[in-house]
Amino acid sequence: MWKPATDFATMRCLTHPLLRRLLGLSPRCMPGGLSQNKGPILSPKWSSLRQSCSARPGLVTATDVVNYWQKVFETNGIPEARESSEYIVSFVLGAKTFQSLNSKSLHTPLTAVQQEQIQQLSNKRLERMPVQYVLGEWDFQDLTLKMRPPVFIPRPETEDLVSLVVEEESRKCEKNLGLCFPVSVPHPVILEIGCGSGAIALSLLCKLPQSRVIAMDKEEAAVDLTRENAHRLQLQERIHILHSDVSYSSAKQLLLWGPIDFIVSNPPYVFHEDMASLDTEILRYEDLDALDGGDDGMRVIKTILALAPSLLKDSGSVFLEVDPRHPNMVENWLQAHPNLLLVLRAIHKDFCGKPRFLHIQNQSR
Cα(49)–Cα(93) distance, rounded to whole angstroms? Predict the structure, then answer.
């Protein structure tokens, strides 16, 4: 989940390649923004190239168009202008990245249809639409997922949350195999709370194919998109998708699948006072309820933790992605609620060195 702009400089670690990839697609708001004119601002140089593109499409290459739209984006204050332009052109040419295009693709003149597609997509970016929504898809782990507003866009750091769950399940399996008399271990049951596009749930299902996965979200748009992505990946028969908020009533429904091994969530955790300083792309297009965690950023986190003991197996785990300010707050909250018998086992850092992921274990049974 994106942090407010107040801490973006350190949170994003601009030199990290994974995060650089996302920055071109849901970037930080830069000063200036769009022009007050009805259309984009174009310099005479680039206006003439645009006319040339339109009049003589056979003379325009992918590199020409990338350079052109980069300049348009820069002139109109669109963040990560080069990356935005490259991803749009690459998408129209059927590639994931501009760097993956071969020499022939780079130097073959674009058709008028391709130029028109690029212009239509670029116009959406000029409206500050994140490129994930502009393209209608994005990669998470090894999956290509459909994306559309207002469903929350998965961020690259959340891939670490998936990895932590996989590592914990592997550790449990190795521990069992090391016993003198290994016992039969049932397939793990995993619950994702707030599934959005299904990125976490579907990735876990692929990484742990023997698992049973339940994905839930209170927003119908998110549930529909998770279902669509599950069908596209042919995983629809192996995942249960629920349209429900996390609550005591939904907990009863979840117990139909039996005690749960892992609860995993990237919940709303932005402090309410920080919401106004989020990126323009986020404020304009994404579901703000998927980010706003209330005054202390822990509104949904507290609910998840309060329900966890009734859902988890003995030694079952909760894995949460949180704000870097939350680990100490969560630990203090757990100590103030000893009846829950939940223990903060580990705090993991993201690739920028910020404490972002919590492993909380159940000891109530």
Answer: 20
pLDDT in tens, 350-364: 999 999 999 999 986
- Full-model pTM: 0.84
Helix (H, G, I), strand (E, B) or coil at 114: helix
Residues 6+ apart with CB under 8 A from 183: 176
Q: What is the token pair recorded at 162?
A: 């998936």
| CB 151 within 8 Å of CB 101 | no
Q: What are phi and psi of 111, to 5 degrees?
A: -80, 165
Q: Which residues of 129-152 are buried (b: 16+ CB within 10 A; e: fewer)?
A: bbbbbbbebbebbebebbbbebbb
Residues 148/133, Cβ–Cβ less than 8 Å: yes
DSSP 341: -
Print burial letters for 20-59: b (CB count within 10 Å at least 16), e (below 16): ebbbbbbbbbeeeeeeeeeebbbeeebeebbeebeeebee
